[in-house]
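Before relying on records like the one below, remember that each one covers exactly one chain. Contacts with other chains, cofactors or solvent are not represented anywhere in the record.
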Amino acid sequence: MKVEIDRWEDGKDVRKVLYGLDRWEAHAAHAVRVEAAGCTVTVDRRHVGVGACAWDSAFLLIAYFEQQDISSWKGCRLVELGSGVGLLAIFLAKLGAQVVLTDQASVIPLLSSNVAANSSDCSSIAGRAQLVKLDWDEPEDISAVLAAVGGQVDMVLAADCCYVDEGGRSAYAETIICCCANLSTSVNTCCLIAFENRSEVLLRDLRSAASCHFATAAARPSPTTSSSQDRGPQMWVDQRRACQVKNSASSIPSHCPSPSSIQQAAA
């Protein structure tokens, strides 16, 4: 994976190559370009708050997915929570996935612009990426997302959607897990959450909320993508508990990363 950024330095627009996760460089950039798995994704990050940043976990997930069987993404039905600039979802759409990008209403125009900008080359995502406004605790928004994806969700993704207060808690921990559960249309729906381990309290809150809905497997962060084993991005694979949905198989589908495969990749 190659990452380039465009940013202003000393009154000039310069292009830099990032050789590791560098949040401050990525956040200071006005454009981010990623080359991975034969695809190029370029996103603009105009200032609309934290939703307009390319966060570390998006790069982490792209690096992980680049190692997998690329052909398995074709036709896979994905929903991304808090898509932001759309980097991760646009990458997966370029691999052939049917993706629904979601975020708050204020971010949708930026998402729309980035989707359009990546829809004109040979790996066009035209017809494979839809935008839907989603407030996680609004039932009407959940219904709109399910309608957009066709009623069946193979995978729910979230990259760095958990923010913490001074006490290390996140007001969104339970909400994001409930949203994942509401979007899980069967036990075969795989939910993958990547986030920076900003506090043990956040980890405990997420695990507690997830235990009510999911069988959860956590994987350690890769030393090649994080400077800290303890506080680097975390990856979870959550599979809907079989008891929640009747008459459904409980195996993880081939396009979803298995707990063991993530642990091997991150070891």
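The first strand starts at residue 2 and ends at 9.
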